[in-house]
Structures are given as C-alpha cells and as structure tokens.
Specification:
Layout: H1 23-48, H2 58-86, H3 93-115, H4 120-146, H5 154-179, H6 183-218, H7 228-250, H8 254-272, H9 280-286, H10 288-312, H11 320-347, H12 351-360, H13 364-378, H14 382-426
Helix pairs in contact: 1-2, 1-3, 2-3, 2-4, 2-11, 3-4, 4-5, 5-6, 5-7, 6-7, 6-11, 7-8, 8-10, 10-11, 10-13, 11-12, 11-13, 13-14
Length: 427
C-alpha cells in the first residue's frame, strides 16, 4: 500500500532528524504547516485581486496564485512526500525557511514591481529570487531522497527535478519578457514561458505525485502498472512532448507546437492509466476529495487539447479563457484535493482526530463551486466564475479554521495528558 504520511506526530524542538527516524515526520510536517499557511495567504490575495481594481488585470491574480500559492504548496508537499515516502532526512528548519521566504519575497517583488510600473530591474530581481528558491528546493529534494531508506520514490524525484528545470526555463523567459522584446518575439516567448511553467513546472509535479497520492487518498495499493519503468516512460514522453511544444513556439512552427501539445495530453492520459482503480468503497470514504482530483485532471487534459487547437490556428495561444480554465478547473482543484487530505494529516492529534479532520474536509460545496467556476470561465461568464471562486474560498477558510481549532484543543489535551503521566510516574 502507498504509505500515507499519517504517522502520529508530536512537537519537535530540533531542526532535523536522523535518516529513517520517527522524528523526521514531525519536523517536515511542522515545516509544511508554515509553508502551506503562507500559500493560503497568497491564495487569498489572488482572489481579492480578482475584484479590486488594478492595472495589470488577470496577470496579477494568476501570478499571485501560480507563482505564490501553488509553488509554495508544491514546496511543502514535495518535501513532505519525499520524507514520508522515501523515509529520508528532512531539510533543516533554516533551509526550509530560506526556500520559503526566497519564493515569497520573489513573488511579492515581481508582482508589486509590475503592478506599480517600477523599472524592469525590480521584476528581474523578483524573478531571480524565485529561481533561487527553485534551486534550493531541487537541491533539498535531491538530498532527502538520495539519503532515504526507501527507493520507490526515486521516479517521483525525477519528475520533480524535471519540473524544476522547466520552471527555471520558464522563469528565465519571463525575465526576458520583462526586459523588453519586439511584438512577434514577445508572443513566441510568452507562449513558451506559459508552456514551461504551466505544463512543465506544475504539470510534471502532478505527474510525479499522482500515482502515489491517488493510492494514498483512496487507501488502496498502488497499481501494478505504476512500476518504475511505467512511470519513467510516461515522464520521458511528457518531457519530449513539452520540449517539442516549447521549440515549436520559440521558432514559430505551430504544427510542431500542436503535435507536442497533443502528445502531452496523450501523456497525461497515460499517467491516468497508472492510477489504481477507484471503486464505490473508495468514493464512499474519500468522496469529494477523489472526485475533485479526477475532475482536475480532466480539466487539465481538456485545456491542453484546446491550446493545441489554438496553436494550429494562429498566434492567439494560451488565451485568458483557456489559462483561467486550466488554472481554476485543473490545477486549483488538484491543489484543493491535496490540501483537503494534507490538512487533517498536518493537524495531527491521533487517529480519532485524523478521522474527524477527514470528515471536515469532505466538501461537496467546494467541488461544485470549483467546477461551476471552471464552466463559467469557459463560457465567458466572469461574474459567475468570480462568485463561485469566492464561495470556494470561504468554504475552504471555514473548514481550515475548524481544523485549526481542533488542533488547539488537541494540543491542550495532550499537555494535560503528558502532565498526568509524569505525575503517575513519580508516584
């Protein structure tokens, strides 16, 4: 069975733990809680930017969510999975904090600089900080997995490293756009920038996680098809497809880009073939978390096919509509499903608290709001989409607050219990 990171945790005062020790999980979970909390702040800021008037339009919301909220969540989740699944050593608190705040500072600087029309050097500096955060994350993941006891996570690490390479290329192209390009080249670079970041940086992380995480969500064994060879073939296919797409955009060969995007969509379907079969029992337990995960993958494939069609019919590639659908219907839903699982795990407090937490995060309202928003975006109903996104955010915030209150009560009870045990030992 895919081992879920649900080990009971306790507060850890040290900043790292030896390889394979139980304390390693407490350390990385504590780090993940902080990083996911910061990601939540960026998600709120991105939602507020949808309705508050500003100069840069949807660009601001997209970058606050994708580069801020989603990349911070990826930073937390990949480290958490690497430590729990590979039984590796977590990064020190200092390294985790450096990576977290490099990323947050970089996003804050580049979004502020572009919104307020500061000189391009500030945007470049913000992008450089984001690049630095990706490098730190890559080195940290490599060290964690290479020193791990279990080897089954090695292929996921390769997906993550491929994702980070794609992100580095995408960030570099974004910096080039900020320095000034002529109109034809700007359009080519923009398309390549979005492909590398959306389909590479984010897509490859999902590709490396989905076979493991779906089994964990559903509490079933991993599919026998999800062997190292099977995952490796899918990853190689996706890398080749993204490479063709990027080259096609940069050299203005729409046919090459279209073929690459079509191959990428086929690769994601191949990834789905590595996921274990989901039956009524699993749906009854995980409910909306599993449905949301599947819906997110479906929107991901659908949006990629639309981009492939756009690439073949002219320069208008990655339109605001299709990007919005991909981000909200695809990636935000997959993130929502992941957080709905990880929230109760990170709260800790024992198996009863874990079960109660999973009940708290079973939100059919969030599932409905997310897909309503994606459908509304597809049909150009922006007001409906924004209203649905706000419903989704409020529902998530209420459930998160419920989890936090439960964690506070659990910690209080734990302190009383520990005191009672000490007194009993003294007697």
């Amino acid at each position: 069975m895919a081992t879920a990171p649900v080990e009971a945790t306790r507060d850890a005062s040290h900043s790292a733990a030896p390889r394979g020790s139980a304390g390693r999980v407490a350390v990385v979970q504590r780090q993940a809680r902080v990083t996911l909390g910061l990601a939540g702040g960026f998600a709120v800021a991105a939602t507020v930017a949808l309705v508050v008037p500003h100069r840069t339009g949807d660009w601001l919301s997209l970058h606050l969510f994708l580069t801020g909220a989603l990349l911070l969540a990826i930073s937390a989740a990949t480290q958490l999975f690497a430590v729990t699944w590979a039984a590796g050593t977590p990064p020190s608190d200092r390294v985790a904090a450096i990576q977290r705040w490099l990323l947050a500072a970089g996003v804050a600087l580049l979004t502020t600089a572009r919104e307020l029309q500061w000189p391009s050097g500030f945007v470049t500096a913000g992008g450089a900080l984001v690049i630095g955060a990706l490098v730190v994350l890559g080195v940290s993941l490599q060290r964690t997995v290479s020193r791990g006891v279990q080897r089954r996570f090695d292929m996921a690490l390769r997906s993550y490293l491929a994702a980070l390479v794609g992100g580095l290329g995408g960030c570099a192209l974004g910096i080039a756009m900020a320095t000034g390009l002529d109109a034809p080249m700007y359009g080519r670079v923009r398309s390549a920038h979005l492909a590398l970041n959306l389909l590479g940086l984010i897509g490859f992380v999902i590709a490396g996680t989905l076979p493991f995480f779906t089994a964990t969500q559903a509490r079933v064994k991993m599919s026998s098809r999800a062997s190292g060879r099977g995952q490796g073939l899918v990853l190689a296919w996706l890398i080749g497809a993204l490479g063709a797409t990027t080259v096609g955009f940069l050299v203005a060969r729409p046919v090459v880009a279209t073929v690459g995007l079509g191959a990428y969509a086929a690769g994601v379907l191949g990834l789905v073939a590595l996921v274990p079969a989901i039956r009524v029992k699993q749906l009854r337990w995980a409910g909306p978390r599993l449905v949301q995960l599947g819906a997110g993958v479906a929107w991901w494939v659908g949006a990629t096919v639309v981009v492939a069609w756009q690439a073949d019919y002219g320069p208008a590639v990655f339109t605001p509509t299709v990007v919005g659908v991909l981000v909200v219907g695809g990636y935000a839903q997959i993130l929502g499903a992941a957080v709905a699982y990880l929230g109760p795990v990170l709260r800790a407090g024992g198996h009863q608290q874990l079960t109660a937490g999973f009940r708290t995060t079973r939100s059919w309202l969030a599932l409905g709001a997310a897909n309503t928003a994606a459908i509304a975006l597809a049909f150009g109903a922006s007001v409906v989409a924004k209203a649905a996104i706000f419903v989704w955010l409020i529902d998530t915030a209420v459930r998160a607050a419920t989890l936090v209150r439960g964690a506070d009560r659990t910690r209080g009870f734990g302190r009383v219990t520990d005191t009672s045990r000490r007194r009993g030992a003294e007697l």
